[in-house]
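Figure 3 (text version): structure tokens given as input.
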């Protein structure tokens, strides 16, 4: 049946009103950024394992949580080293001083200066897999990746997009940027850390390695002296966190990061627009290495250790 005259007239009116609205909006520019209701972080408690629902979604969330806790056991092909996600993202990713993953679902896609691109949360996970775990890119369409993302969405419940949160920028910046002394760090390591992480830094079982072929790669944030000092200062020794001075934390970071560790293929392309932080231990555009480790362990599958930036869809020209 053809559209009745009345309906057609109404349609014309609606279109005209819409056009008028657009015209007004263009004529009188107004503040268009929506104001975000202040997020009250103090009143927010991240959901915990006991809050995981008993349904299909809950099963995925739980698998994601277990992948974080038992990464090498669950993903021996992709993460064959001695590190697990919770080696750094302590307390199942909920600990505020240990690069918390709470709210991460609300922070991506995000511009990452190290990649010089806007990246997704799945790509961010692959950065940690390839660099912090010295592993191989996990397929973005895999069930394992989906499960980890499901867990991040779960622990981001009620965190609005754009919310300001403690730890939203990773490890807390050290107030004073000091220079570590590796010899002093070694002496402190031998009295305070060796009992767990062992003299050769190889760790033991649930205690992760701090250097050597099974530890984090040179491309991980932890390879930067200031980042490692922040983690150590706020979280170590495990039994008495907060007892080290800032200088001791930098000394320990300098000692730990002076040792050999896995290479990170493609690292020379990091910070493609320049602006690498001072303590990055390898050369990038416009940046000289800062205290490079003694040597690097070559990667078994170098091509699988590089996370590509998002590419223009096949056959499309792309936009500038
Ligand atoms: C060696 C330590 C380490 C390990 C192991 C590690 N990460 Fe990370 N991760 C970090 C640090 C540090 C940051 C924050 C970057 C910074 O502070 O410079 C981070 C950031 C992230 C982020 C971004 C969070 C945000 O909101 O910006 C995600 C997601 C993430 N890690 C997931 C994982 C997953 C999943 C695993 C295990 C497969 C993992 N990480 C293993 C150290 C680690
Ligand atoms: C009581 C045992 C214990 C002691 C002592 C200890 N750690 Fe740890 N450390 C751990 C455990 C366990 C983890 C993994 C995080 C977790 O499971 O909570 C860890 C994680 C780390 C990490 C991040 C993961 C990695 O492998 O790089 C660093 C760095 C670290 N410790 C440095 C130190 C330093 C430096 C000292 C001495 C000041 C120290 N630790 C003392 C048990 C210990």
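Below: residues designed for each position.
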């Amino acid at each position: 049946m053809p559209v009745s005259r009345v309906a057609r007239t109404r349609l014309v009116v609606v279109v005209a009103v819409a056009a008028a609205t657009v015209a007004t909006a263009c004529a009188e520019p107004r503040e268009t950024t929506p104001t975000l209701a202040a997020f009250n972080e103090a009143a927010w408690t991240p959901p915990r394992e006991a809050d995981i629902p008993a349904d299909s979604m809950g099963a995925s969330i739980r698998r994601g949580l277990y992948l974080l806790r038992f990464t090498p056991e669950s993903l021996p092909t992709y993460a064959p080293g001695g590190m697990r996600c919770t080696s750094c993202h302590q307390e199942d990713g909920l600990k505020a001083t240990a690069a918390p993953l709470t709210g991460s679902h609300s922070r991506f896609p995000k511009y990452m200066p190290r990649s010089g691109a806007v990246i997704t949360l799945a790509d961010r996970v692959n950065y940690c897999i390839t660099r912090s775990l010295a592993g191989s890119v996990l397929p973005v369409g895999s069930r394992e990746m989906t499960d980890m993302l499901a867990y991040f969405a779960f622990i981001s419940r009620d965190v609005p997009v754009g919310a300001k949160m403690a730890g939203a920028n990773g490890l807390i910046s050290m107030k004073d940027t000091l220079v570590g002394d590796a010899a002093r760090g070694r002496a402190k390591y031998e009295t305070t850390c060796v009992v767990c992480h062992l003299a050769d830094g190889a760790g033991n079982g649930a205690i992760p390695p701090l250097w050597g072929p099974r530890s984090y790669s040179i491309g991980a944030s932890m390879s930067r002296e200031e980042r490692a000092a922040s983690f150590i200062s706020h979280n170590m020794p495990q039994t008495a966190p907060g007892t080290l001075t800032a200088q001791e934390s930098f000394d320990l970071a300098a000692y730990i990061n002076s040792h050999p560790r896995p290479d990170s293929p493609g690292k020379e392309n990091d910070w493609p627009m320049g602006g690498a932080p001072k303590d990055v231990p390898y050369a990038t555009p416009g940046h000289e290495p800062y205290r490079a480790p003694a040597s690097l362990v070559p990667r078994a599958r170098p091509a699988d250790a590089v996370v590509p930036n998002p590419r223009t869809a096949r056959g499309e020209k792309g936009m500038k």
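DSSP finds eleven helices and four strands in the chain.
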